């Protein structure tokens, strides 16, 4: 696996400590058994008690009762952010760039959130609490003044790290709902492509691991965009422009996808690809069936867990963040189910490992 | 190490100063070993009525069942926690943490702890020290808990209210002071603008004339300028300026100035640096945009009138309001302090109380609840010797809680191996830790700790022997001991220090013993001290007059000549013609063959010490076999083992002593070579004068006979060790199988009746088990058959290991010599290469150099010799104990007794 690469010799000098740390963090990720205990909880207090026995430790100890789901959410996120920031602050050269790439996706989400929020006349302060702390940057809060994309780019984002991804979506059109979705997807596309290319150039085990994960991410976006676009105003040409061109579907699959008109076609296209065929099998909206989205999440988790099988590569950092995010989603899902006394669906979290 | 080097034949040593010294050195060696021998013999004699209590064997333990009345349970556990002699077992291991009975109370404690932590944080914020009077309160009763809860609740809400008020006030204060700054700074901007305009356009007066339109400045008839003023965080200024420029396409004019005084953030209380800015722009659209950007950067905008008079008026108003606010703020601060000082007085006690309650409830969660009889059932391990104390505690607790039914403690039988409990004190604790680090002793197994107390520092000192270094080490340990009260109270997080402090008594003994061996080696910072006067007399040789002595750089002193050795005429107390009475004669310091001489002496010492310690280990093993009545192992393993060791190494040790005793300094050139003799003995080569292997002179035939007998005996021991035990077990097993049938059923019935005691409350379980027993009987036999093969393999491994280890462990003890050599060589190098350079230099330069070099010398002595060499000698001594000594008798597969004790919990070291 992986060609001989000189940089791997010095990997431990630059990032060995951080990799060790992240692998340690990864061992603290909740296991199947923990989830089993969590799903048995009757109240959020029980949940807190059980989480105390895991690596989360006393992260909720200083919260007054009664607990709410949003407090748990905040604290979970706070912990992840603290870990990430620690790693980022100690990272060196290339790893720093890599970690920044991870942050960019959160920045994109934050910008889109703020713009959509302003369109709907929400208060800035209210919106800010919903932003992911990993994706904050100086100019973020001023995006609300922009009325069209050119403005957005020229006035605000040109100084931000997102500027290079923005080139493709500059237009004089006013911002509206449709427009924003397109900006989001174009930004994401540019971001994924840039990230993919960077990893490829980095080479070695990092490229092996990250290209696999990012290719899946790109394909997932393409498929989801296609499925979601049915019955909307989005034209097929516009849609084709949004597909990130780095996945396994590129180029043939994407051409086919661009022509697709219904879900069945998408499914047929996916069946040509060994990786994606099982994901479409057995999905449905019936009770007991898993949604396509969940299947995608499961596959993502598998890829991310596999990335820990290789050493001397940056993929573990990306994978850890993603796994931890999935874990937060799981815990919040279980917490919501408990809080709303809706136990029927409590089992539909995505187990990790 | 080559054979020559270990026991150099006398003829090969040729050097200038060459006393034939083997006999002479034997005296000191004996005295060096004497202490160890003496000590060990003393231990051996005392083994039967050993007085060191449970340190020799771990405390006798028993499994007990407690029936506690529900109302008395809390008080009982509290008493037992104070006592710290009982280890509870978890009786509901399959129950989730949040499904247990007292989880609600545990949660209440958590909540109280949270409140206390909140108060503690507030104390830290204000830097109020917590009162610590060292008083540890008893665990409060459950009803007191409600009172405490109420108290904390009130304090927390009080505190939060005060904080809220303070925050609001501070925010107000911040806003006002920001406004004040703006008014002050903008004054400058406006003045500048005025000057600029006067110079360039002459329209200056209009700035002020047009003041009726608030917030707008008009300049000339066509342009109308608006402005906003505000405050922004200093680090955001750059990005702010840039975005402003971009978003407004350069159509705004921004001026900013830094505030000199940092302001206090009302929420966090941190100091923050801020900038005042003022932005001029044109038109309403731009105004909105600028305002949005300001909002985006969280800049606070303040209304700022344009006319200087109004500004001045506002400024005056602001100043007075600021003063008022300051007084109010001070009052709030005082109030806060009063509340907090009350908290600071009590918080430590509260913490302890809450932790104790929590620990009690956590323990109660381990118990079985019997709802019908309203009692809690607990199982625990406790020392048999302390049963009285525990009963007393239970009685006392039942009385205080006012329960009518007494709590019952019932001792049970158990097949499980009990935990190991060694009572230690401050002195023995460090040594016990050393042994436990290797493995906790099996229940009631001989514990090497009491012997380690002496043998460990002694073996360390054999390697570290130096009077000066030992003295420094002693001083360090005395320092720790003198201030130990202080150190015990003020714990640090420094692990290295904690480790050294934990072993302070160990270091004390190591220092003392190092001084002792250093004195024997006659080395003090590698320098010999002439205490009693050397036994050598150079002037005894008639040919050596003063002239001759002066002309020679080196001399060969021959002890064979009369008067040279034991003939000193100098006016020392030792001029009677005896050898140097204690330790190495200081004359060796001058000899060029000092190392060769010491090597021979120290190597033999190492072998003897090793043999003695290993023998002692075997004797402890004998003690174990006798105690556990394991006669099979005693006769089939222990006896051949000790014969083997005696034959192989014991004989060598006897020869060493014999050689020291028989050959004197004068005739040492004819002394036999022990090593070659030993090799020849195993090769059945007859001892001969030519090979220097005849020890018992004139009786070579007898010697050969003896040696052949010894070797054959040793060889005979090998099959003895290897086969007898497995064969006996095999036949015993066969017999059992032959008589199987009723007998087997009988034993299993016994087994049940044993268990019945333990599980009296669960009869279903017993029936179930007996069924299981009968069905698995036939399988059991097959299992035992199968185990025989495995048993044989294990026995083979053990036998081979033992036989090889007799040789390799003895060789391993040579590290005593190697490290001792390294230590003395290193300290000598340090002396000759560093310190003596300065001392040799004459005159003023010598004074300066000595002064400077002393610091180099002393820091290297501490850094290399004391710390590094000390650590290495420590590690080797540890290894000798763990591997060479303990492998003879110590299993170390037990588990530690960890009683439920408030003492540990209160310190906050282990929670739950």
From TrEMBL, chain A:
Keywords associated with the record: Hydrogen ion transport, Ion transport, Transport
One protein family per Pfam: vATP-synt_AC39
SUPFAM superfamilies (UniProt xref): V-type ATP synthase subunit C
Span of the signal peptide: none
Source domain of life: Eukaryota
Keyword check for Repeat: no
PANTHER family: VACUOLAR ATP SYNTHASE SUBUNIT AC39
Function: Subunit of the V0 complex of vacuolar(H+)-ATPase (V-ATPase), a multisubunit enzyme composed of a peripheral complex (V1) that hydrolyzes ATP and a membrane integral complex (V0) that translocates protons. V-ATPase is responsible for acidifying and maintaining the pH of intracellular compartments and in some cell types, is targeted to the plasma membrane, where it is responsible for acidifying the extracellular environment.
Subunit structure: V-ATPase is a heteromultimeric enzyme made up of two complexes: the ATP-hydrolytic V1 complex and the proton translocation V0 complex.
Family, per entry: Belongs to the V-ATPase V0D/AC39 subunit family.
Protein's name according to its UniProt entry: V-type proton ATPase subunit
Lineage: Eukaryota, Metazoa, Chordata, Tunicata, Ascidiacea
From TrEMBL, chain B:
Residues that span the membrane, as ranges: 458-482, 503-521, 606-626, 638-658, 705-723, 843-868
Subcellular location: Membrane
Signal peptide: none
Keyword field: Coiled coil, Hydrogen ion transport, Ion transport, Membrane, Transmembrane, Transmembrane helix, Transport
The keyword Transmembrane helix is assigned to this record: yes
One Pfam family from the record: V_ATPase_I
Membrane topology, from the record: Multi-pass membrane protein
Domain of life: Eukaryota
Sections of the chain in a coiled coil: 145-172
Keyword flag Ion transport: yes
General function of this protein: Essential component of the vacuolar proton pump (V-ATPase), a multimeric enzyme that catalyzes the translocation of protons across the membranes. Required for assembly and activity of the V-ATPase.
Family note: Belongs to the V-ATPase 116 kDa subunit family.
Descriptive protein name: V-type proton ATPase subunit a
Organism of origin: Clavelina lepadiformis
């Amino acid at each position: 696996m992986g060609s001989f690469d000189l940089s791997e010799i010095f990997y431990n000098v630059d990032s060995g400590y951080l990799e060790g740390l992240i692998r340690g963090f990864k061992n603290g990720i909740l296991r199947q058994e923990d989830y089993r205990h969590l799903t048995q909880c009757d109240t959020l207090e029980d949940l807190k008690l059980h989480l105390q026995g895991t690596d989360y430790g006393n992260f909720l100890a200083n919260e007054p009762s009664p607990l709410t789901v949003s407090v748990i959410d905040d604290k979970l996120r706070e912990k992840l952010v603290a870990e990430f920031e620690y790693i980022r602050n100690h990272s060196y050269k290339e790893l720093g760039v890599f970690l920044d790439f991870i942050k960019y996706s959160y920045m994109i989400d934050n910008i889109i959130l703020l713009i959509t929020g302003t369109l709907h006349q929400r208060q800035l302060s209210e919106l800010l609490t919903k932003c992911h702390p990993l994706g904050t940057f100086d100019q973020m809060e001023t995006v609300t003044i922009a009325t069209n994309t050119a403005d957005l780019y020229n006035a605000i984002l040109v100084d931000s790290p997102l500027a290079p991804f923005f080139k493709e979506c500059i237009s004089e059109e006013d911002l509206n709902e449709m427009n924003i979705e397109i900006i989001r997807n174009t930004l994401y596309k540019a971001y994924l492509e840039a990230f993919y290319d960077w990893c490829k150039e980095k080479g070695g085990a990092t490229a092996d691991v990250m290209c696999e994960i990012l290719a899946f991410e790109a394909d997932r976006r393409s498929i989801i965009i296609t499925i979601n676009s049915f019955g909307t105003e989005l034209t097929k040409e516009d849609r084709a422009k949004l597909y990130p061109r780095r996945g396994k579907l590129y180029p043939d699959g994407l051409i086919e996808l661009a022509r697709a008109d219904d879900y069945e076609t998408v499914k047929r296209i996916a069946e040509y690809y060994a990786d994606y065929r099982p994901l479409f099998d057995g999905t449905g909206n019936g009770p007991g069936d898993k949604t396509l989205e969940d299947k995608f999440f499961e596959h993502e988790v598998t890829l991310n867990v596999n990335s820990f099988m290789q050493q001397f590569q940056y993929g573990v950092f990306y994978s850890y963040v993603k796994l931890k995010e999935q874990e937060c989603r799981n815990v919040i899902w279980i917490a919501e189910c408990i809080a709303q006394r809706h136990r029927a669906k409590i089992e539909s979290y995505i187990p990790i490992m | 190490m080559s054979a020559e080097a270990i026991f150099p034949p006398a003829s090969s040593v040729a050097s200038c100063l060459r006393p034939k010294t083997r006999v002479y050195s034997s005296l000191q060696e004996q005295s060096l070993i004497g202490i160890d021998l003496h000590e060990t013999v003393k231990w051996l004699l005392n083994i039967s009525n050993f007085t060191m209590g449970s340190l020799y064997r771990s405390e006798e333990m028993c499994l007990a069942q407690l029936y506690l009345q529900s109302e008395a349970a809390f008080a009982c556990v509290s008493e037992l926690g104070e006592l710290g002699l009982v280890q509870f077992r978890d009786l509901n291991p399959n129950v989730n943490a949040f499904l247990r009975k007292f989880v609600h109370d545990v949660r209440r404690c958590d909540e109280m702890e949270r409140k206390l932590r909140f108060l503690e944080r507030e104390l830290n914020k204000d830097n109020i020290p917590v009162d610590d009077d060292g008083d540890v309160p008893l665990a409060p009763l459950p009803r007191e808990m409600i009172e405490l809860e109420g108290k904390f609740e009130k304090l927390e809400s009080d505190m939060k209210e005060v904080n809220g008020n303070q925050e609001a006030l501070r925010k107000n204060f911040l806003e006002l002071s920001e406004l004040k700054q703006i008014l002050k700074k903008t004054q400058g901007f406006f003045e500048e603008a005025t000057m600029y305009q006067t110079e360039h356009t002459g329209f200056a007066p209009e700035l002020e004339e047009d003041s009726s339109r608030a917030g707008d400045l008009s300049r000339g008839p066509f342009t109308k300028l608006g402005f906003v003023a505000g405050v922004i965080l200093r680090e955001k200024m750059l990005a702010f300026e840039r975005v402003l420029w971009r978003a407004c396409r350069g159509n705004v004019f921004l001026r900013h100035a830094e505030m000199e005084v940092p302001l206090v953030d009302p929420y966090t209380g941190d100091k923050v640096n801020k900038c005042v800015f003022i932005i001029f722009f044109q038109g309403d659209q731009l105004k909105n945009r600028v305002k949005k950007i300001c909002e985006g950067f969280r800049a606070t905008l303040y209304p700022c009138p344009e006319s200087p008079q109004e500004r001045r008026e506002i400024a005056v108003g602001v100043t007075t309001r600021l003063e008022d606010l300051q007084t109010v703020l001070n009052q709030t601060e005082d109030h806060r302090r009063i509340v907090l000082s009350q908290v600071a007085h009590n918080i430590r006690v509260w913490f302890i109380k809450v932790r104790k309650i929590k620990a009690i409830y956590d323990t109660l969660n381990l118990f079985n609840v019997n709802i019908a009889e309203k009692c809690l059932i607990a199982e625990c391990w406790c020392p048999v010797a302390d049963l009285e104390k525990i009963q007393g505690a239970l009685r006392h607790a039942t009385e205080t809680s006012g329960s009518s039914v007494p709590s019952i403690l019932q001792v049970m039988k158990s097949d499980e191996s009990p935990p190991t409990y060694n009572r230690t004190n401050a002195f023995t604790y460090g040594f016990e830790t050393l042994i436990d680090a290797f493995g906790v002793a099996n229940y009631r197994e001989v514990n090497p700790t009491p012997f380690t107390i002496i043998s460990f520092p002694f073996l360390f000192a054999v390697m570290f022997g130096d009077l000066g270094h030992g003295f420094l080490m002693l001083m360090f340990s005395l320092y720790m001991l003198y201030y130990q009260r202080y150190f015990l109270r003020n714990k640090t997080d420094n692990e290295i220090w904690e480790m050294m402090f934990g072993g302070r008594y160990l270091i004390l003994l190591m220092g003392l013993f190092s001084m002792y061996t250093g004195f024997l080696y006659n080395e003090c910072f590698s320098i010999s001290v002439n205490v009693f006067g050397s036994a050598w007399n150079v002037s005894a040789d008639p040919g050596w007059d003063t002239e001759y002595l002066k002309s020679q750089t080196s001399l060969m002193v021959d002890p064979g000549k009369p008067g040279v050795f034991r003939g000193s005429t100098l006016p020392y107390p030792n001029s009677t013609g005896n050898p140097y009475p204690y330790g190495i004669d200081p004359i060796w310091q001058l000899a060029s063959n000092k190392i060769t001489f010491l090597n021979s002496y120290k190597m033999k010492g190492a072998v003897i010490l090793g043999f003695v310690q290993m023998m002692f280990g075997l004797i402890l093993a004998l003690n174990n076999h006798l105690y556990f009545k394991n006669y099979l192992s005693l006769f089939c393993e222990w006896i051949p083992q000790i014969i083997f060791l005696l034959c192989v190494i014991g004989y060598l040790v006897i020869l060493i002593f014999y050689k020291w005793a028989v050959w004197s300094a004068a005739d040492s050139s004819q002394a036999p070579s022990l090593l070659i003799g030993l090799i020849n003995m195993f090769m059945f080569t007859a001892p001969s004068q030519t090979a220097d292997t005849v020890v018992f002179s004139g009786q070579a035939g007898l010697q050969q006979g003896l040696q052949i007998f010894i070797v054959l005996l040793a060889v005979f021991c090998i099959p003895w060790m290897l086969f007898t035990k497995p064969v006996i077990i095999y036949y015993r097993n066969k017999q059992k199988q032959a008589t199987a049938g009723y007998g087997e059923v009988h034993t299993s019935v016994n087994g049940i009746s044993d268990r019945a005691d333990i599980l009296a409350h669960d009869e279903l379980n017993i029936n179930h088990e007996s069924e299981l027993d009968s069905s698995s009987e036939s399988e059991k036999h097959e299992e035992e058959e199968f185990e025989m093969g495995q048993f044989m393999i294990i026995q083979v491994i053990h036998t081979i290991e033992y036989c090889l280890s007799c040789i390799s462990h003895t060789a391993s003890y040579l590290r005593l010599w190697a490290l001792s050599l390294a230590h003395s060589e290193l300290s000598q190098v340090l002396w000759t290469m560093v310190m003596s350079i300065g001392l040799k230099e004459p005159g003023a330069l010598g004074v300066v150099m000595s002064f400077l070099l002393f610091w180099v010398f002393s820091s290297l002595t501490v850094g290399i010799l004391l710390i590094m060499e000390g650590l290495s000698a420590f590690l080797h001594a540890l290894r000798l104990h763990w591997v060479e000594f303990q492998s003879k008798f110590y299993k170390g597969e037990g588990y530690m007794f960890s009683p439920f004790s408030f003492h540990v919990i209160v310190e906050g070291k282990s929670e739950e």
